[in-house]
């Protein structure tokens, strides 16, 4: 795991909100020379702190009018059942995120579809037919109050003692 200092965190914060910024602009914003900035960015990419760059697309603008969160409970918690379920989920384009959970449900799927008919097809033809699924509970998004792909990096500046973030006081 990389040791991140305050300059790294500032660099990451800028990139999260302005992913298409030039290296020269980024360097100026974080008070580095362009070459030092590029070296840091390359290190963050090599260390998999920065895992990629992507455009943020408005789901409504591309016809994905229904968003749902689907909680899934598996019949068994054996390795082969879990592996089969995870492999299937990885192949479903409608699922933009899948999280293993604690509590009474095993997985939380974040799903985008065109409409209720599309969701019904996804649920009946894919999810409920997936081997090992015991129960499904769906919630539909009425409106999005907050949507941000950015992590709360300011929280990382003052982590508990076990984290690998160092202070870079100037």
Task: Give a short summary of the structure.
The chain is α+β, with helices and mostly antiparallel strands. The protein has helices spanning 6-17, 23-29, 34-46, 79-90, 116-127, 153-157; strands spanning 66-74, 95-100, 107-113, 133-140. It has 6 helices and 4 strands, in the order αααβαββαβα.
Explained architecture:
This protein is an alpha+beta fold and 170 residues long. The protein folds into 2 domains: 6-55, Winged helix-like DNA-binding domain superfamily/Winged helix DNA-binding domain (Arc Repressor Mutant, subunit A, Orthogonal Bundle); 60-140, Lrp/AsnC effector binding domain/regulation of amino acid metabolism (RAM) domain (Alpha-Beta Plaits, 2-Layer Sandwich), CATH 3.30.70. 36% of the residues lie in helices and 18% in strands. It has 6 helices and 4 strands. The protein has helices spanning 6-17, 23-29, 34-46, 79-90, 116-127, 153-157, and strands spanning 66-74, 95-100, 107-113, 133-140. Strands 2-3-1-4 form a 4-stranded antiparallel β-sheet. Helix 2 crosses helix 3 (34-46). It is elongated. The model has no long low-confidence stretch (mean pLDDT 91).
- SS elements, strand count: 4
* Ends distance: 24 Å
Provide the domain count.
2
Query: Major beta sheet, specifics?
Result: 4 strands, antiparallel
By oligomeric state, this entry counts as single chain
Which superfamily, in CATH terms, is the homologous superfamily of the largest domain? Answer: Lrp/AsnC effector binding domain/regulation of amino acid metabolism (RAM) domain
CATH topology annotation of the largest domain: Alpha-Beta Plaits
CATH architecture of the largest domain: 2-Layer Sandwich
Enumerate how many helices there are, as a single number: 6
Class based on secondary structure composition and strand pairing = alpha+beta
The strands making up the biggest β-sheet line up spatially as 2-3-1-4
Per DSSP, what share of the residues sits in E-state strands of 2 or more residues? 15-25%
What fraction, in percent, of the residue positions are helical? 25-40%
Shape: elongated
CA radius of gyration:
20 Å
């Amino acid at each position: 795991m990389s040791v991140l200092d305050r300059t790294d965190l500032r660099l990451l914060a800028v990139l999260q909100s302005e992913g298409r910024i030039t290296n020269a602009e980024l360097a100026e914003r974080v008070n580095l020379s362009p070459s030092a900035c590029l070296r840091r960015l390359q290190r963050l990419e090599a260390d998999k702190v920065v895992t990629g760059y992507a455009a943020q697309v408005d789901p409504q603008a591309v016809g994905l009018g229904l968003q749902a969160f689907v909680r899934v409970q598996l019949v068994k918690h054996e390795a082969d059942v879990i592996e089969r379920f995870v492999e299937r989920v990885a192949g479903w384009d409608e699922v933009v995120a899948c999280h293993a959970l604690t509590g009474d449900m095993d997985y939380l799927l974040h799903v985008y579809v065109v409409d209720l008919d599309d969701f019904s097809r996804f649920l009946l033809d894919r999810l409920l037919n997936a081997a090992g699924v015991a129960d499904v509970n769906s919630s539909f998004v009425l409106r999005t109050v907050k949507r941000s792909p950015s992590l709360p990096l300011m929280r990382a500046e003052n982590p508990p003692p076990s984290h690998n973030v160092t202070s870079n006081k100037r």
